[in-house]
Amino acid sequence: MRTAPISPAILLLAAVACAEPEPAPESGARRTAEAGVVDTVWLAELRRAMVRRQIEARGVRDEAVLRAMRTVPRHRFVPGADAASAYGDRPLPIGHGQTISQPYIVAFMAEAADIEPGDRVLEIGTGSGYGAAVLAELAGEVYTIEIVPELAARAGEVLAREGYANVHVRAGNGWLGWPEHAPYDAIVVTAAPERVPPALVEQLAVGGALVIPVGDWVQTLRVLRKTPDGLREEASLPVRFVPMVGEPPDTGG
Hints:
Blueprint: H1 28-55, H2 63-71, H3 83-86, E1 92-95, E2 98-100, H4 103-112, E3 120-124, H5 130-138, E4 141-146, H6 149-161, E5 167-171, E6 184-189, H7 198-203, E7 204-215, E8 219-227, E9 230-239
Parallel strand pairs: 3-4, 3-6, 4-5, 6-7
Antiparallel strand pairs: 1-2, 7-8, 8-9
Helix pairs in contact: 1-2, 1-4, 2-5
């Protein structure tokens, strides 16, 4: 695990418009044959612009994270969105009342998680699968849980199609984590509970980072490092995530 300090950042919500001139009309086989190449080049440029304007400009410096953000085809994880919208600086709906986080937040959380090659990472809230794909570019194995079965199934299909064999998707309750594969070197949570789930703390390896938004109407993205003496807070950031559902009933006396 890396131990580099996390740079402070402020959420900016202005959208970035990325436009590409329309190519001159062509006919027949040539246009058909070249369409895929032109599309690929254009989309790669959209990703580079996204990283440059939305992520690097706000202080994310980890080159592995930046490379992952340039690599993962975000547009393939957003149902019904055109490419320019997929790479815009905003969260987007993915159905079932859920969203895909804006690219900056995905990158910030990945950097804060302090992931090394070979690490085992747990993600709570698979959503579209995009965040899991970014984590998979950094880690050895990614285990990701989604409480909405339809989203879990769709994300699993997209991740498999994109070749992310090191991502394991499960439909289930994120409050309980995935104890069979613990301990995890990092845990990233993409929905906001009102308190830190104890099971996630238990499943985090000593030295690992838990990146989690906490709160109800007022939320804070907390970066918690597990030490032999407990949790140490390393950074925080005001955010707004969908609420984390599925909290087990309190069985305490």
